[in-house]
Amino acid sequence: MADTRYELFTEEHDALRASVRDFVGREIRPNVEEWEAQRDFPRSLYERVGELGLFGLKYEEEYGGSGPDLLADAVVTEEFSLCGAGGVAAGLGAHKDLGSYYVYRFGNDDQRKEWLVPSIRGELISALAVTEPGAGSDVASITTRAVRDGDSYILNGQKAFITNGSKADYVVVAVRTGGEGYPGISLIVVDKDTPGFRTNRMQTVGWWTSHTGELFFDDCRVPAENLLGEEGQGFVYIMKNFQWERVVMALGAVAAAEKTLELGIEYGKERTAFGRPIAKFQVWRHRFADLETEIHAARCLTYHALRKMMAGEDALREVSMAKWLACELDWKVADEVLQIHGGYGYMMEYPIQRAWRDSRLGPIGGGTTEIMKEIISKTYGL
Amino acid sequence: MSATAPSIVSSFFTPEHDALRATIRSFVERELQPHAEEWEREGNFPDWVFSKMGDAGLLGLSYPEEYGGSGGDYISSLVLKEEMARCGSGGVGMAVAVQTDMATPPVLKFGTEEQKQNWLVPAIKGTKIACLGITEPNAGSDVANIETTAVRDGSDWVVNGRKIFITNGCRAHFCTLVARTDKPSGYHGFSLFLVPTDTPGWQVTRRLDKLGMHSSDTAEILMEDMRLPGDALLGEEGKGFYQIMWELQGERLVAAAGAVAGSQLLLERCIQYAKERHAFGRPIGSNQVIAHRLAEMATEIEAARALVYDAVWKFNKGEYPVKETTMCKLYTGLVINRVTNSAMQIFGGAAYLMDVPIQRAWRDSRLIRIGGGADEVMREILAKMRGL
């Protein structure tokens, strides 16, 4: 069994984790308050992350990567989630695991050189646009059309809730190139400067530092060579990457929940009432014990799903389970930790309100909790 | 990562574990399951369950071969516990777990060669049945509050005290007993003894009637001027508390593994029932609320299993994962109780009938949140470990 292992992470992964944690602690976390106030974080952060090689762990050296090592990339996801601002983790993550990863997974070598290589360096920012005002997890119902016209496609339609949408240099867009339903869907890369392409930044409850965009396509002419993979295969591609996206969300949610719990315990130890730290009241001690247990269980489940993926097994059920359980838990932890803060928890100057707002996206984005339960029950033939 | 990096496997079970599982499953289905209803009704199961399991080599899976065991790893104990959940009677699995994972591990770890030959070898054969005497009317998880005393008299010990909720206590041939051998001084002053139950002064005062786990016997024990020879002492005098705290970890992990396996079986029955049972012209499982409830049950069970496997993996590597084990005990108990309660609801009126086994799982599982340390005790441990 020397050529197999059950442990997910190696000592090299541990070393990577330590260095990413150090980077996040020095270069991201101290700036979070300012970036939140500005409702944005600078483009230079992408370049800095690229410079450190943290966008390149999933890719071979020929593209400027240092992998491929999906587990190393998972470590980066976990550590970014500890930065204290959901929007920063989301903005970096949507680039790392959605837009540019699609180019790698489904694009040809020319496309990889054009978009992936500068993305790994952090010089180009990417986004993925599937969701529309009338179609989210129901991908087969999207209506944005791309009609072939000579060497181009002409796009018409609208996308919504697109992370990085109003900031990205290029967007991987799901479009309808064929008939109704899932077989008519394709993926096309749209450069931000393409005439007929316009974005609008949406106001969100949380994730203030990340851009959530509406995208509009009005007779937007895109070169046919921007088609990713085969025409009509878009649905299949999207379903494939959903598994990665969801396991990444679960990883991030578990890490964030652990961070939030630490915040709650620290606060509870400092704040006294009736002569003792409130964290020492039994109700809180036990609540923390429950939350810590649930977080560890969610982590074990998420690692189980990731392990199955890494072993090349079908992990649809386990990934769906991990995604909803971890994301619901992250929000629940934030709500409990807001509670121990009492009145301060309701004040904008304390970071817990941000964790509370940011974590609420988890059970919605990337497929809602209800969609996950639909998928799980279908795997049992229900 | 280099190109020669080892590939990830999704499971720690080897082909040997799989073969063991198949053997145990067929034993359980052939020898135990057909009798489950009868044993539940009678409130007891026969002693031959132990000897047959001993003959099949199932009572010493992770014990050394020199004592009649199979020399397997801790994961083989996990396999046994998981498969015992299929026997259909929670009491049988619990009684066997007391034999294999609660009363006898201290004999192997702390016993003299003679004690191992006298008690461990026959326990592995299934010819001697064991019980564990910790809990008292005034001391459960609060082991330090134990009042049973063992006082030296020449080379003998004289024991006085009471024990309660002792699984296998009515039928046991011997008891791994905790008693106080010194003045109360916190966790010091306790010792372990190996007590033959035919010792004069040992008395089963009551066979306790329980809400669930009907097939297992649960005893109240009185020890009055019970005289034990000097060599009845197990391990070091005064170190009993530490020796037994170590044992409690294995007990909790085994209980957790059994809870997950029981939950999984019940989930499978629920899914099957939800597909077969029709209401308003369609299977009840095609109602979204039922399908989603089943998805929630399945998710929690998968998380519970992942949690237990994480602790088992660490335990098997020789680590001593107290925090993880405590979490396992707490989480799996809560999960199985939610699962059994959901099962009651999904089966509806049928579940409320005593001849349909769903109610049994519901009653049996309730113990898991109490026995081996209540939920609240687990939370206390976790909070303390977190510095709270």
What is the topological layout?
The complex is a heterodimer of chains A (382) and B (388).
Chain A (H helix, E strand, L loop, with lengths): L3 E2 L5 H18 L3 H7 L5 H8 L18 H11 L5 H21 L2 H12 L5 E4 L15 E5 L2 E12 L6 E7 L8 E7 L5 E5 L10 E12 L3 E2 L5 H37 L1 E2 L2 E2 L4 H29 L5 H25 L11 H8 L9 H11 L3
Parallel strand pairs in A: 2-5
Antiparallel strand pairs in A: 3-4, 4-8, 5-6, 6-9, 7-8, 10-11
Helix pairs in contact in A: 1-4, 4-7, 5-6, 5-7, 7-8, 7-9, 8-9, 9-10, 9-11
Chain B lengths: L6 E2 L6 H18 L3 H7 L5 H8 L18 H11 L5 H13 L2 H6 L2 H13 L4 E4 L15 E5 L2 E12 L6 E12 L2 E9 L5 E6 L10 E11 L4 E2 L5 H37 L1 E2 L2 E2 L4 H29 L5 H26 L10 H9 L8 H11 L3
Parallel strand pairs in B: 2-5
Antiparallel strand pairs in B: 3-4, 4-8, 5-6, 6-9, 7-8, 10-11
What does this structure look like?
The complex is a heterodimer of chains A (382) and B (388). With 382 residues, chain A is α+β, with helices and mostly antiparallel strands. Chain A is 49% helix and 16% strand. Chain A is built from eleven helices and eleven strands. Chain A has helices spanning 11-28, 32-38, 44-51, 70-80, 86-106, 109-120, 234-270, 282-310, 316-340, 352-359, 369-379, and strands at residues 4-5, 126-129, 145-149, 152-163, 170-176, 185-191, 197-201, 212-223, 227-228, 272-273, 276-277. Chain A has a four-stranded mixed sheet. A four-stranded antiparallel sheet of chain A has the order 3-4-8-7, covered by helices on one side. In chain A, a hairpin with a 2-residue loop joins β10 and β11 (276-277). The radius of gyration of chain A is 21 Å and the shape is globular. Chain B has 388 residues and is an alpha+beta fold. Chain B has three domains: 15-129, Butyryl-Coa Dehydrogenase, subunit A, domain 1 (Orthogonal Bundle), CATH 1.10.540; 131-239, Butyryl-CoA Dehydrogenase, subunit A, domain 2, CATH 2.40.110.10; 242-385, Butyryl-CoA Dehydrogenase, subunit A, domain 3. Chain B has helices at residues 15-32, 36-42, 48-55, 74-84, 90-102, 105-110, 113-125, 240-276, 288-316, 322-347, 358-366, 375-385, and strands at residues 7-8, 130-133, 149-153, 156-167, 174-185, 188-196, 202-207, 218-228, 233-234, 278-279, 282-283. A four-stranded mixed sheet of chain B has the order 2-5-6-9. In chain B, strands 3-4-8-7 form a four-stranded antiparallel sheet, covered by helices on one side. The longest helix of chain B is centred in the middle third of the chain and has 37 residues, at 240-276. Chain B starts with 6 loop residues before the first strand and ends with a helix. The interface between A and B is large, with 54 and 48 residues.
